[in-house]
Design goal:
Layout lengths: L1 E4 L18 E4 L5 H10 L8 H35 L1
Parallel strand pairs: 1-2
Length: 86
Amino acid sequence: MDIAAYFTEPAPASFEVLLPTGVDLVVLNRASLAITGPVSFEGVPILRDDEAALINWLAMTRKIYADELPRIRRSIAEYQAAILHG
């Protein structure tokens, strides 16, 4: 099972958080936009220690991801075309 978490700074490294066996943690503070963007739109927050920080992170990440999504999709399409056509 994968979970993602946004921490108030300083955020711990994922390996510093004790979790049950089989649970992988992505620390959103340090993750790429390719990961944080979809999580910001589709993820479900279950724990909130700083509601204002979470709302700010969601708003900023969604805005940046929405702005960059056409470029991300174009880059993926160009990469796939290069692989297919050598």
